[in-house]
Design goal:
The protein is mainly α. The protein has a single domain, classed as Four Helix Bundle (Hemerythrin (Met), subunit A) (Up-down Bundle). The C terminus is likely disordered. Helix content is about 80%, strand content about 0%.
Length: about 140
């Protein structure tokens, strides 16, 4: 295991749940940035690996959705699921069209959601209050 792999593993094991989610967003954004570079230099295999990595990270966000019960939680989960589906669609469209432009749309959503998660840690909320304090509109 390389030093960077060991460092990342250490960060994952010591991270809070909020930090883990932020790491996933950053990982998807980074994979999209690398995919753009590979679009530019024509490296199809590397581009495909990066797009697959980004899609896998966003899929992880989908599968880990766990919102509180009740109407507000259900609405939040539905909105997040729609946004993640949109991001996955844009990543897929980039692969199909062999064009990086859809990644701009995906990144716009990912950055906006990441900023929300950064705000959560900047101003921690009471566990009982947190679900109703987050608002996402699609």
């Amino acid at each position: 295991m390389s030093y960077s792999d060991h460092y990342l593993e250490s960060r994952v094991f010591s991270a809070s749940p909020v930090e883990l989610v932020r790491m996933i967003y950053r990982g998807a954004l980074d994979a999209n940035a690398r995919a753009r570079q590979h679009f530019a230099n024509g490296d199809i295999a590397a581009r495909t690996r990066c797009l697959n990595q980004s899609a896998a990270l966003v899929a992880e966000l989908v599968t880990s959705l766990e919102c509180p019960p009740g109407p507000a939680g259900q609405q939040l989960e539905q909105n997040l699921r729609r946004l993640y589906d949109y991001v996955l669609h844009q990543i897929g469209q980039a692969a199909i069209d062999q064009n990086a432009a859809p990644l701009d749309l995906a990144d716009q959503v990912l950055r906006e959601l990441l900023s929300g998660w950064q705000a959560i840690e900047a101003a921690p909320l009471d566990q009982d209050y947190a679900p109703t304090a987050i608002s996402v509109s699609a």
